[in-house]
Structure formats: C-alpha cells, structure tokens
Amino acid sequence: MFLEIKDLSVKIENKNILKSLNLNINKGEVHAIMGPNGSGKSTLANVLAGKEDYEILNGKINFKDNDLFDLNIEERAQEGMFLAFQYPVEIPGVNITPFLHSAINSKRKRMNEDEIDNLSFAKLLKSRASDLGINIDMLKRSVNTGFSGGEKKRYEILQMSILNPDLAILDETDSGLDIDALKIVTDGVNKLKTKNNSFLIITHYQKLLDYIKPDYVHVMVNGSIVKSGGSEIAAEIEKDGFQKFQ
Amino acid sequence: MNSETLNTLDTYSKNKYKYGFVTEIDNDKPQKGLNEDTIKFISLKKNEPEWMLEWRLKAFSKWKKMKDPKWSNLSFPKIDYQDIYYYSAPKGFDKKPKDLSEVDPKLIETYNKLGIPLEEQKVLAGVAVDVVFDSVSVATTYKGELEKLGIIFCSIGEAIQKHADLIKKYLGSVIPPGDHSFSALNSAVFTDGSFVYIPEGVKCPMELSTYFRINAENTGQFERTLIIADKGSYVSYLEGCTAPKRDDNQLHAANVELIALEDAEIKYSTVQNWYPGDEDGKGGIYNFVTKRGLCAGKNSKISWTQVETGSAITWKYPSCILKGDNSIGEFYSVAITNNFQQADTGTKMTHIGKNTKSKIISKGISLGKSQNTYRGEVSFLRKAEKARNYTQCDSLLVGNQCGAHTVPYIESKNNTAVIEHEASTSKINEDQLYYCRQRGLSHEEAVSLIVNGFCKQVLQELPMEFAVEAQKLVSISLEGSVG
What we know:
The structure holds 2 protein chains of 2 kinds.
Chain A: E1 3-12, E2 15-25, E3 30-34, H1 41-49, E4 55-63, E5 66-67, H2 73-78, E6 81-84, E7 91-95, H3 96-110, H4 118-131, E8 142-143, H5 149-163, E9 167-171, H6 179-192, E10 198-203, E11 216-221, E12 224-229, H7 232-240
Parallel strand pairs in A: 3-10, 3-11, 6-9, 9-10
Antiparallel strand pairs in A: 1-2, 1-4, 4-5, 7-8, 11-12
Helix pairs in contact in A: 5-6
Chain B: H1 3-14, H2 36-45, H3 50-64, H4 105-114, H5 118-124, H6 134-148, E1 152-155, H7 156-162, H8 164-170, H9 181-189, E2 194-198, E3 208-209, E4 224-229, E5 234-240, E6 251-252, E7 255-260, E8 265-272, E9 286-295, E10 301-308, E11 313-316, E12 319-322, E13 328-337, E14 342-351, E15 357-366, E16 371-380, E17 388-397, E18 403-412, E19 418-427, H10 430-438, H11 443-459, H12 464-478
Parallel strand pairs in B: 2-4, 3-5, 4-7, 5-8, 6-9, 7-9, 8-10, 9-11, 9-12, 10-13, 11-14, 12-14, 13-15, 14-16, 15-17, 16-18, 17-19
Antiparallel strand pairs in B: 1-2
Helix pairs in contact in B: 2-3, 3-9, 10-11, 11-12
C-alpha cells in the first residue's frame, strides 16, 4: 500500500477534529475529498504533512513503507510528500531560485542522488515556469511576496512540478481562482500525473473536478469519511449539497 | 619582537629622557595599567613626533575627568582600566599556537564553512606564520597601483610620520578626543589603524580593505582609522573580516573618522565578528566603537554598512554630520545577537546643511538569551532647510528568551524638515517555517533562509565579494539556537 490511513483520530485544543478516519491510496490514483467547511479536510492535509499543532489520539499512517509518525515535516517532504497550501505564506527577501534549489537538493540527498548544479537548476526552473505560463519576472521576486491569489496558486504548482512528488496533496487549490487560472493550474497537475504518483485533492466545490478527473471521490463530514465512490458522487453534491450526508 | 620595535627601542636608548620617560620597561612584558608613562611608552615605541605625544596626553587628561557613557541598554561589570595591557606587540606573544591543531576545533570548523583557505586560517587563528604568502605580494602590487593615482593608503602610524600635515588637520576633527570617554581613551592610547587619502577627482579603482594592508599587522584593540576623500573623489572601504578572530583582548575601543569634501563619496562597510563568548556567556570582546563621518562639502555622501554578529558587547553608532548642503548620509545595519550577547547599536544623523538627506535601515535579530537594541538620533538644526530623513527599524525575535528594543530620538529645529519613521518587531513566523520545511528544508536551513531574507535590504548594500561571505556568516551566527 502506498498511503494507508487507519482509524485516525486527531484533536487540537481540546477539540476532536478527525474521528476514526480511514483512507487508502494506491500508486497512480487520484483521490478527491469533498466536504463542507469545518469538516476536517485541511486538518487531514496538515496531519499528513506533519504540522506540529495537532495531537494524534489514535490511529496509524503508513506512507511508502514508513510509519509516517516517525518522520518530521522535512523528512516527509524529502520522501516525496508535497502539500500545495491553501494559503501560501510570504517569505520576504527570499528568492524562489535558491529556495527551491535547496529544497530539491535536500530531497536528492535523502534519496542518495547527486545534487543538481546551479545552471541545470536554473534551466529546469525556467522551462517549467514557461510551461505553466509564469512570467520570468515573477521568478525574480521573493517567495509569494506581493503575489495575487492566483499567482500564489500557480507558484505552488510550479514548485510541485520541480519537486516531482510521489504524493501531492492539493488543499483547496481552486479557492480564489478565476476560470483561466483554474485551467492553468489543473493543466499543470494533469501534465504531472503518471502511473507512479498519486494525488489527494481537497476541495469544496465540484468545479475543480471538471478539469481533474478523480478515480475516487470521498465525502468527509464531521471528521470522518461518510461515503466513497466514483466521480458520480461529485455530481450528486453539486446537485443537492452536503445536506444529505450530514 | 619585530625589527621595527627593536629599532624603536634602540632609538629610545640613544635618546634617553627626551620625553622625560623614566619608567624601567621590561621589554617582553609591557606594563599593565594606564598612566602618562604608558602613553609615553606607546608614542615612543611608535617613534612619534612630539606634537603627537602632546595630543595623546591632552586626550588622556580629558579622559581622567570623564565617566563612561551610561545611556546604553547594556549590562557588564565595570571595566578596570588599570588591569589592561595597552601595548602588546606582537599580540598574544607567549600564547601563540604553533599550528592549527592547537586551535579550537570549533573555530576551524567555522573557517571551513566560510571557505577560508588554510594559509589565511593560520593568520586569523594567530598561528605563527613565517612563510610569505600570496596576499602580501598582492598587497604590494595594489599599493603600487594606488600610488600612481596619488592615493595614500597606509597605517595610521606611517601617516603620522609621513603625512603630518593631513594628520594634524584632520585627526580628531570629526571625533574630538573629549567627545566621550571612549574617544578620549582611544585618542590617548591608539596603536594602529588605517589612513586613507583620496586626492581631488580620483575614483579609487578598487575596494580598499584592511585585509590588504598586510594581515600580520596588529589591528584591533585601540584602532584608529582616518579616511579623507578630497573634492569629487570616491572610495569604498571594507573593514574587518567575516571569520572570527582569535583575540586575547577583552576591551576594544576603536575610533573611525571619515571626511568627505565637496562632491566626494565614501562608502564604509564593516563585518564585525569578534569572539562573542561561549554558550554560557563566558568571555568575549567588549566592543566600544566610535565611528563618525563628516559630509563637509556640498553634495557629499557618506554611507555606512555594517553586519555585526560578534562580540559579547557591541556599543556602536556610526554617524553622519551632514554639514554641506545637499549632502547625504546613509546607515544600513544588520545586528545579530545570540546566546548572551548584547548589542546597543544604531546611528546619529545630524542635519546641518540645506536639502540634506539621511536614510537609516536597521535590522536586528535576537536569538537565545541575547538583548538587541537599536538606538538612533536624527536631528535637524535651524538652518537645515528642507532636510529629509527616512528611518526603518525592523526587529526579528527567534525564541522567547531574547529581547529587541528600539529607541529612536528625533529632534527638529526647522519646520520644513520631513521625517519618516517605520518600525516593526516580529517573531519568526511558524507558518513560514512550516512552509519551508514542507518543501524539504531542515528547521535550521529554514531559519537561516528567513533571516537572510529579512536582512536582504542591508546585505545587498555590501560589495559583491563581501555579500556572499556575509550571508554565510549570518547562517553560522544562527547555529545552535534553533530546535
């Protein structure tokens, strides 16, 4: 099993957020999690990425034959987990080039691969940026600083395409995007998809799933997955809302 | 004992009592303590003319009546001036390590991280080196090139001998010996430092650096530097070294004076990384530095850039007196304190002339149990029509046992002055750390990246070759404070 979440219960500040959640993802699969606000979708993303604010009450997560709880945030990232943030943070004064260059090399180091040199990296970054319709001038700016919502999301996808993760988690990547930006972002994701990597797409609306076709759709309500199935579920939600799952 | 000193002593024995000098001196062990004889001894060893000795003695008599300034936010035991050696050349005479294996391995590790070549490491660590290595010949080559342009670049001692007219005219003209106790002390006992004179209309073609003024010279404890940029000239001067220097001296009190005449520009960059003491706050340098520049002529400009990461105590306010109309003063500063370090640093911009402008960008980063204070004074005198100041002070806290303080004073006697002041204090942001780590950077790498980003506005003011090293230094200064 590629990713196996078993009986996961999580709380933050005395509030139980995830309750006995189960989810299995195989290599090459695209999963979507849909749910109303406050159902725990983003918590799941952050628990997977290793954010330290949460208390794990129960359960196990297995990722690529590792007990995920044995790995810290950066080790999970280096193992090939990528989280496209709902709200990417600004890091003033830090340019994307050295930032991503260090990131990719720390991953390569863990995988016992040779580091990528400055020149090759700069070329790679430029070509991926142009694929995603990102202006070269944007690469000269500080990470996310002064970016519009759409720019930030495109930037996340650029980083994802450089780091080439085994498991990409997209947390509400569609929020705040207009139709054109949504197309660019989802195109980027579709280009990256292979039979060796997997996607976990967290979204509120069905719209995103018009562009990225999931193999499985899960409905999450109140901290647990209440229904799983194919893309027909998304259509159901579009029609009737989350009401009937609650 | 080097040959210069021997010559000096030789001269002394031939001219006995010339300066009424009576104390018996044991040559290998200079006397501790400060009195008129100490000063006479220094002046004699440096073979100085009588007017110089008088100048020193006058400063000393002022010092005796003064108390150390108390305004800073620093706490340290009272300095016992009688328990200090004021002349000890060569430095650390008895205790010099024979080779690098006798040097603290932590120091070597830092040198390696900074990518400093082995031969240079030896010099920095104070290893006795007798091979003549490259930089000395490099220095000589540069010296020849500079001489062709009429640029004078030598030790202050040499300048006192050879350029008495300039020294007499300018030494103490920006920092009068009686300014405060540390300037009086320095004026009385200074032993080394640099002298630079750029003739009218000459743009100095290279960055002048203490480094090229031959490594072996004993700079440090009571350094005195004087830089004069004549009309329409330009010079960029680099002071110090990014590598931590081994030094047995506890107290440093340097004075640096800059004078920019009409249309001249001086850019002065410092990276200060003296020994900061250990993790428990033991040892370390007390660094009491007075740096002041005078924009004497119209349209002149003086720009200070400093990266302060060393010393147990830093007390330093590089300042500009904007006397000439349209003159410009700038101050860019990064001060990082870690463990038990204390820094009280900032600037003073005094607007005297019309249309004078000043700009202050200060970035303070506090880690561990350290205290970091920005202290600044911007004043506009009555005649400073349409003068402007822009000040930006940002503090970054890493952890919750350190302190950041901002103490800006603004005083205006002219109502056409425009003053802008921005200040911010922030803690290193957990979300930023999470974001970086999610991309695969370690906690330490992430902190270093964020701090370097925070300092970028200042670091980019440094000359190219310095900037890269300074960035590495910033990262090294943060080590051990994270996690």
